[in-house]
Design a protein that fits this description.
Largest sheet of chain B: 9 strands, parallel
Helix content of chain B: 40-55%
Shape of chain B: globular
Structural class of chain A: alpha/beta
Number of strands of chain B: 9
Largest interface: A-C, 67 and 67 residues
Shape of chain A: globular
Structural class of chain B: alpha/beta
Number of helices of chain A: 16
Bound molecules: pyridoxal-5'-phosphate
CATH architecture of chain B: Alpha-Beta Barrel
Number of domains of chain A: 2
Number of strands of chain A: 15
Helix content of chain A: 40-55%
Oligomer: heterotetramer
CATH topology of chain B: TIM Barrel
Strand content of chain A: 15-25%
Largest sheet of chain A: 7 strands, mixed
Chain lengths: 402, 262, 402, 262
């Protein structure tokens, strides 16, 4: 396993940049996670949970009509079909089961648009854990339906009124709250960021995506894909699918970051492409920051990619060249979303559309018959408000019938 | 001037030192200089200048708001050297900063410029010695104090390793939680100080939650320094105007200074 | 197979009450469907499609915490995990494949809240068919997001401005339009209603629900369930799960209709419980009608159950006593929806919550250890607007954190 | 009076019959009686009274709106007998109705009451002979006409079976589509009439889309009856008031009547 070194670093990235008060909890978490993964009872329970409750493994799908248009074979890992509609269920089920194992009775989580909050609240309901979700006050207003989902699931939602009142501030608040409750509370982080062991731990629970896809791909085609593509916000779905292929040197790995209004406008969330090395939320990684190191607000039509940091393992893969990272702007992503809907009858998440759009762009430079595996990380139900706004599909009739 | 100079004096006087915290640039750049003078005038033994940061994970609402306000006012990292230079000389000036700001400025460059401005050293709330290789080198090179934190949750091993990396004093985070004035000081603080003392002769400062002379006296009974932050910031946050804030700060500092002298 | 007689009747129910102009098309459809089901190539293609695209078979899930509260074993057939989020994908994939087989190039569909319209548009996109969806004008306004979904998938949505401007009028309009385009167009009906052979045909494509569940149940428990429960709007999900158990006499079958504001208020959609025998949309069945036989408007918090008719096979099962039908009102359904969310981390469709609520009510009269199989026909994403309104979960903070 | 009486007359005159359709109760109960009188006065040979229904799947927008308006005005099924009684005697009166209304009233009871009111028979757009057992019995019992439909899509077998079940005349739905006035009449209509004639000696009425004397003349050349519905309803739908509607209806009927006499 391509794990970090003993102090939680991949090269210069990762580590633990947190108050000393959290170190003991991080050590405990690391030990518990390592022991859990080595315990067949734990892994068997998690596997069963994923199968019976999470609807795993997700299918590998050959997108025939899309492939015809793209000129290469496009294969989709259908994480949109998982319970709660995204790869995120893998992470929350893993961490919630670990929470139980550690004897803690409560989880806290940060959320941006609410997807990770809903997933966390789901896992908490399933395991009978208390759950508090921190969410920027701005976001609680914009994403009222997800707030309702979390409450319906029994979670407490705490609007965060500090800083920019968005995801990064929710994460600050969750870290603060964790310091005060760490004896009985697990911080169920939402992506492959944060202090060690979180980046590795979240990746370990998400790597089923790639492990399954690799086996499914071999079974269906007798070969490995030429390219594996995924969108990158914090980076959990991308690490989830990349990990299985890291040692397959012939398989090219591509992460697609949110290009927002366009990379040139400066209004984007292309952290690896445009950020500098720095420390944010407990890890050294690429960060969108100003000259002084103050975090800069990111921009993307996709709430799930709208984050100014990125998981440190991605920073390392970028620095070593094992994976390539490119921006995909709002317009390109939305065009891919529409194309997938029209050709395959699949409405994916706007996040996932970034990965698909990048893959379709890449396809133009690939030999005919090349095989591209795209992680379709989630479904688009949550995004329909944005879609309506973007495409101007009014509720008003396009044609009145009598 | 280093922290040790202040502690030499307070130890000689048989009392704890009073450490006053304020974000540089708050309530304005000039007024933060003025505020530091007021604190020194009224009995602060050490000054801790906060470096305003967009993502202050260890701070509670008062300090967050003050830092936001300083940044909204255009505060730049390099201005902390101006403030330091303006106030240095009377008591040791330490900077409390989240690590990204230093890393971004350049660790060696920061240490050099800060030392040149007359600064004593850094308090680093999100930097543990394990990650501090570059900072240890730079602080050695420029003779700066290095204040790391210990916490109630720290193991004996971690306390030992942390104090071994400290210079100047050790910062004991006395409650599990963020900065902010609380009604009662922590019950676990004396225990943490006691555990820490077994590993070091360095002075031990106790932070988090102090807001009155009485509390300062209580902490001064077992700690070597009483660190006050949110209560100081609140002098300005709650005040109708800055002059009122200055006046409240003078009164608060005097009360706290009397506390550590009881 | 419990098929209707040669003229499409189950007892006195069913048949064909449509203009003569449609009879030839219905005959053609019946012949094509019969031939298709007998053709191993067709059934194999449909099975593969369901598996790779539709995410079938759906899992059978033992709801442990809910069972503890209910005092009986509650097993859920997780149709909410299907592609597009409900059992409806089974029907549309079957009919769309049949459309191709018949050499037609276009489908039309009626829709109420939009669920069947979205499913139809999905299948049309997948198969490259043209698609027109008729939807009451009132509904296009209330369900603007589903209108957007259909348009995104490439379908034309025609707002229907006649009658009460809701589902039943959309169905009238689809039938009218079909008369004019029947040579190249298939009417992809959304439930087990309409003229023969539709009720049987839709049931045949939905019966996988019960066939899978029966096998899964036997495998997991070694026995059959004591009770099988489902919600009944038109009745496709209920027939889908009932069919496999019709010959298992010990298995009690329960259909739960929408009780709306309460059965006593008269504002409901409990067609079998409260309706009289009549003819609507091409079949003889139970109908909510006034003294003269004019159709009466139905009422339910659940758009998918808000229909004044019901599939004729249900009418027959009710008349013969093989299945029992009872109303579940809005309040009881919403309480079940909330309970499932809190205990199991599953937010189901409001339709499905009616089936669950009925099962939980039944459970009180069952022996401890009884086994109840509930068809969880769909997920609740589409219903969050209603949920917010019903429970008063405002987007506003319940508690402000700093 | 039965349909046969009207056709005996028109055949004797060597022309097609004019069948005028209007929903009973539209534009009001009294005015629907008045409208029928106007049509008869201006040359209609047979009257087809629509029974307003909430879900008229074979009707286009004009007739839908008229039926909705009649229902909104409180129209009840039994009132069709009042209208029939008021207008019967001069020409045959048939009722065109969706089946649920009859079934709900009771098939035998409906046949009895309608016959008693002087009605000639029923035209049943959503009842095919295959489903009509009870109706065939009742219409036999009360001596009522039974008009079923044939369509361009009907097979030879179905045409044969349908005409065998008819009494009075056969209704040829001349286009695949709903009722409603169209610019040109259907090209497939003559072919359908020709196919139908091979199976029956009954008169064949051709419906759907006629709105002028010219079109009536064209259809009258091969059909035994020209059925006009939407164009008649439109006289009232488009009129500023009911008297204007009556006047337009008189003019339209006269034009149509001249058409079938050309
Ligand atoms: C469907 C989906 N994909 C991707 C992401 C981005 O997260 P990550 O980069 O951690 O996979 C999100 C986050 O909300 C998401 O909802
Ligand atoms: C999830 C779900 N369940 C049930 C129904 C009701 O339809 P039926 O009674 O045909 O299963 C609908 C209709 O929209 C639905 O969306």
């Amino acid at each position: 396993m391509p794990n970090p070194d003993a102090s939680g670093h991949w090269g210069e990235f990762g580590g633990r940049f947190v108050p000393e008060a959290l170190i003991a909890a991080l050590d405990e978490l690391e030990a518990a996670h390592t022991a859990a993964l080595a315990d067949p009872a734990f892994t068997a329970e998690l596997e069963q949970l994923g199968r019976e409750y999470g609807n795993l493994p997700s299918p590998l799908y050959f997108a025939e009509r899309l492939s015809e248009e793209a000129g290469v074979e496009v294969w989709l890992k259908r994480e949109d079909l998982n319970h709660t509609g995204a790869h995120k269920i893998r992470n929350v089920l893993g961490q919630a089961l670990l929470t139980k194992r550690m004897g803690k009775r409560r989880i806290i989580a940060e959320t941006g648009a609410g997807q990770h909050g809903v997933a966390s609240a789901t896992a908490a309901a399933y395991f009978g854990l208390e759950c508090t979700v921190y969410m920027g006050e701005e976001d609680t207003r914009r994403q009222a339906l997800n707030v309702a989902r979390m409450r319906l699931l029994g979670a407490e939602v705490v609007p965060v009124t500090t800083g920019s009142r968005t995801l990064k501030d929710a994460m600050n608040e969750a870290l603060r709250e964790w310091v005060a409750s760490v004896d009985h509370t697990h911080y169920l982080i939402g992506s492959v960021g944060g202090p060690a062991p979180f980046p590795q731990l979240v990746r370990d629970y998400c790597r089923g995506i790639g492990d399954e896809a690799r086996a499914q791909f071999l079974e269906r085609t007798g070969a490995l894909p030429d390219v594996v593509a995924a969108c990158v916000g914090g980076g959990s779905n991308a690490m989830g699918i990349f990990t299985a292929f890291l040692d397959d040197e012939a398989v090219k790995l591509y992460g697609f970051e949110a290009g927002g209004d366009g990379y040139d406008t400066g209004r984007h969330a292309a952290t690896i492409t445009a950020g500098q090395i720095g420390v944010l939320h407990g890890a050294r990684t690429f960060v969108l920051q100003d000259e002084d190191g103050q975090t800069v607000e990111s921009h993307s039509i996709s709430a799930g990619l709208d984050y100014p940091g990125v998981g440190p393992e991605h920073a390392h893969l970028a620095a070593t060249g094992r994976a390539a990272y490119e921006p995909v702007d709002d317009a390109e992503a939305m065009a891919a979303l529409e194309k997938l809907a029209r050709t395959e009858g699949i409405i994916c998440a706007i996040e996932s559309a970034h990965g698909l759009a990048g893959a379709l762009r890449l396809a133009k430079g690939l030999k005919a018959g090349s095989r591209v595996l795209v992680n379709l990380s989630g479904r688009g139900d949550k995004d329909m408000g944005n879609v309506v706004e973007y495409f101007g599909f009014a509720g008003a009739p396009e044609k009145s019938g009598e | 001037m280093h922290a040790a100079d202040a502690f030499a004096k307070t130890r000689a006087e048989g009392r704890a030192a009073l450490v006053g915290y304020l974000p540089a640039g708050y309530p304005t750049l000039a007024d933060s200089i003025k505020a530091v003078d007021i604190m020194i005038d009224h009995g602060a033994d050490i000054i801790e200048l906060g470096l305003p940061y967009s993502d202050p994970v260890m701070d509670g609402p008062a300090i967050q708001r003050a830092a936001d306000q300083a940044l909204a006012g255009g505060f730049r990292t390099r201005q902390v050297f101006e403030v330091t230079e303006a106030v240095a000389g009377r008591v040791p000036i330490l900077v409390m900063t989240y690590w990204n700001l230093v890393e971004r400025y350049g660790v060696d460059r920061f240490a050099r410029d800060f030392a040149a401005a007359g600064g004593a050293g850094l308090i680093t709330p999100d930097l543990i010695p394990d990650e501090a290789g570059e900072w240890i080198k730079a602080s050695d090179a420029y003779g700066l104090d290095r204040v790391f934190l210990v916490a109630p949750s720290s193991t004996e091993e971690r306390i030992a390793a942390t104090v071994a990396a400290c210079r100047g004093f050790v910062y004991a985070q006395s409650v599990m939680g963020v900065t902010g004035a609380r009604a009662a000081t922590s019950a676990v603080a004396p225990a943490l100080v006691e555990r820490t003392r077994k590993h070091t002769d360095l002075p031990i400062g106790v932070g988090l939650g102090v807001r009155s002379g009485d509390q300062a006296a209580e902490i001064g009974a077992y700690g070597d320094a009483v660190i006050v932050g949110s209560a100081i910031v609140n002098c300005y946050l709650d005040a109708p105007d800055i002059p009122t804030g200055h006046q409240r700060l003078a009164e608060l500092t005097a009360d706290l200074a009397a506390g550590v002298r009881r």
